[in-house]
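[Discussion] Sanity-checking designs against the backbone

I'm trying to build intuition for which residues belong where. Below is a C-alpha cell string of 493 positions. I'd appreciate it if someone posts a full sequence so I can compare it with mine line by line.
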C-alpha cells in the first residue's frame, strides 16, 4: 500500500477543509434566509450556533481523522474498543460520500455549463430575452446528453486532480481554487454594492429587522439559524475527517476548526452581498434554490452593463466552489477504497471515475427520462431523494455518531479525544464541555433531525408524514444500536 501523505502546510489544510465546507448550498440558500429572517439579527444568532454547534462536531471529525490516519471507513475500525459497533457507521459514511457525489457532480456541471454560456455571450440582452433565459435552464435539464457531458467533465477533472496525490493534487489545486474564489467573491461583492439602488438591498440584508423576526416567529428564526449553522460545514459523513487524516500535529485542531468556520462564513456572507443588492438594483425579488442561480441571476447579468464579464466571473466562482468540494469528497472515496482493498491510487482513481459516471445517471435522468418518478411526493425527483438521504439523514445521524464516539466510554472516549484535539500549538478545546457534548449537543442534533422530517412532510398530509416519521425513528434506532449496542470488551485504542 502506498505511503500516506501529509499536507505540506497548515494553510493547505485550512484551505482544503474550507473548500469542502464552502458549497453551492451556501450561495443559493443563506442570503435568502438571512434576509427573510431578519438580516443582521439572524446573522448574530447564526454565528452563535456556529460556535456552539458546528465547531465542536468539526473538531470531533478532525480528531478521529488525525488520530487514525485513515479514511472514514477505517478510522472507526482503528480507534474503537473491541466489541463495539462504531465501524458499521463507517460504511454508512462512505455511502453518504458516494450519494452526495451522485447529484453534486451534476450540479457542478450546471455551474461549468453556465460559465461556458457566459463566456460565449449567450446571456446578453442581444442574445436572449428574459423568458429565453428561464427556458435555457429548462432546456439544459431536459437534455440528458448535455447534462451527462458536464457531469462527466466535472467528475474527470476532479478525479484527475486527486490522481496527482494529496500534496501535488488535492492541496495545491484546492489552495489555488480557494484563493481565486476569495478574490472573485470580493470583486463581485464590491461591484454589486456599487450598482444603482443597491443600498436598499444592503439594508435588507445586513440591517437588523426585528419586525421580520417577529413576523416569522422567534422560534422559527432560531431553528433556521441553528439548521443553517449545522449543515453549512458538511459534518457527519467523514468529509472533514479525511482532511484531518492528512494533517500533522504541529497545531491544535480547535484553532484550525475556527479558521475554517470563519472562511466558510465569510463566503456565505459575501455571496449575499453579491446577490441581494443586485436583485434589489434590478427590482427582482431574491429567491432561493436553483432558480436563483440559473434564472434570476442570469437575467440580472442580462440587464447589467458588462453583464457578460460579471456573469462569467460569478459562474467561475461557483465552479470553483463546486469543484473544491468534489475534490475533497472524491479524496475521501479514494482513501476508503485504498484502505479497504489496498488498491494503488491509480487503480482507485480509474475504478471510481467509471463508477461515479454510472452512478450520476439517476440524477441526470431524473430531470427528463425518469421525471415521472417522484419519490418524496408530487414535484420531487431523484435528485431530491438523494439530497434528502444525505442532508436530512446521514449528516445529522453521522454527527451523533462522531459525538458519541468522542465523548462516551463506549467509543474512543473523552480523554483520547481531548488529547488529540489539543496536540500541537494553538487554541485548546474547553475541557468543561464534555457534559454539553454528551447530552445537550446530541439533543439539539436530534431536534434538527426530526424537525427536518416534520417540515418536509407535514404539508403533504398524514399519509406521507406518519410513514416517514416511522422511517426517522428506525434510523435513530440503528444509530442507537451502533453507539450503545456493542459488547465493550476492551478500551479504546
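Best answer:
Here's mine. Compare freely.
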Amino acid at each position: 500500500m502506498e505511503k500516506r501523505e501529509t499536507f505540506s502546510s497548515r494553510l493547505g489544510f485550512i484551505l482544503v477543509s474550507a473548500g469542502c465546507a464552502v458549497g453551492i448550498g451556501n450561495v443559493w440558500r443563506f442570503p435568502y434566509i438571512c434576509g427573510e429572517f431578519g438580516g443582521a439579527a439572524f446573522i448574530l444568532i447564526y454565528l452563535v450556533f456556529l460556535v456552539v454547534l458546528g465547531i465542536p462536531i468539526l473538531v470531533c471529525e478532525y480528531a478521529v481523522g488525525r488520530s487514525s490516519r485513515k479514511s472514514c471507513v477505517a478510522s472507526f475500525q482503528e480507534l474503537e474498543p473491541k466489541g463495539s459497533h462504531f465501524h458499521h457507521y463507517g460504511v454508512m459514511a462512505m455511502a453518504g460520500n458516494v450519494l452526495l457525489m451522485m447529484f453534486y457532480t451534476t450540479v457542478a456541471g450546471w455551474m461549468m455549463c453556465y460559465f461556458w454560456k457566459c463566456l460565449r455571450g449567450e446571456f446578453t440582452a442581444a442574445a436572449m430575452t428574459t423568458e429565453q433565459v428561464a427556458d435555457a435552464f429548462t432546456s439544459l435539464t431536459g437534455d440528458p446528453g448535455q447534462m451527462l457531458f458536464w457531469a462527466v467533465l466535472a467528475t474527470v477533472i476532479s478525479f484527475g486532480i486527486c490522481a496527482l496525490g494529496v500534496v501535488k493534487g488535492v492541496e495545491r489545486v484546492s489552495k489555488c481554487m480557494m484563493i481565486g474564489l476569495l478574490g472573485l467573491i470580493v470583486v463581485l461583492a464590491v461591484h454589486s454594492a456599487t450598482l444603482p439602488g443597491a443600498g436598499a438591498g444592503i439594508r435588507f440584508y445586513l440591517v437588523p429587522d426585528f419586525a421580520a423576526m417577529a413576523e416569522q416567529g422567534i422560534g422559527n428564526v432560531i431553528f433556521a439559524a441553528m439548521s443553517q449553522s449545522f449543515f453549512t460545514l458538511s459534518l457527519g459523513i467523514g468529509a472533514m475527517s479525511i482532511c484531518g487524516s492528512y494533517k500533522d500535529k504541529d497545531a491544535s485542531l480547535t484553532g484550525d476548526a475556527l479558521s475554517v468556520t470563519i472562511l466558510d462564513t465569510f463566503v456565505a456572507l459575501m455571496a449575499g452581498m453579491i446577490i441581494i443588492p443586485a436583485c434589489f438594483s434590478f427590482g427582482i425579488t431574491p429567491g432561493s434554490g436553483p432558480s436563483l442561480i440559473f434564472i434570476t441571476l442570469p437575467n440580472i447579468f442580462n440587464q447589467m452593463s458588462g453583464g457578460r464579464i460579471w456573469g462569467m466571473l460569478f459562474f467561475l466562482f461557483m465552479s470553483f466552489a463546486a469543484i473544491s468540494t468534489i475534490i475533497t469528497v472524491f479524496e475521501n472515496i479514494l482513501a476508503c477504497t485504498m484502505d479497504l482493498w489496498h488498491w494503488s491510487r491509480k487503480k482507485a482513481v480509474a475504478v471510481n471515475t467509471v463508477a461515479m459516471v454510472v452512478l450520476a445517471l439517476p440524477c441526470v435522468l431524473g430531470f427528463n427520462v425518469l421525471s415521472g418518478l417522484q419519490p418524496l411526493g408530487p414535484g420531487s425527483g431523484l435528485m431530491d431523494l438523494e439530497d434528502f438521504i444525505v442532508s436530512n439523514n446521514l449528516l445529522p445521524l453521522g454527527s451523533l455518531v462522531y459525538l458519541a464516539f468522542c465523548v462516551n466510554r463506549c467509543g474512543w472516549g473523552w480523554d483520547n479525544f481531548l488529547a488529540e484535539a489539543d496536540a500541537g500549538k494553538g487554541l485548546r478545546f474547553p475541557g468543561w464541555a464534555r457534559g454539553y457534548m454528551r447530552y445537550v449537543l446530541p439533543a439539539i442534533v436530534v431536534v434538527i433531525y426530526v424537525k427536518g422530517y416534520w417540515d418536509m412532510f407535514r404539508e403533504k398530509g398524514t399519509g406521507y408524514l406518519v410513514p416517514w416519521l416511522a422511517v426517522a425513528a428506525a434510523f435513530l434506532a440503528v444509530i442507537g444500536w451502533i453507539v450503545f449496542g456493542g459488547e465493550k470488551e476492551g478500551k479504546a485504542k
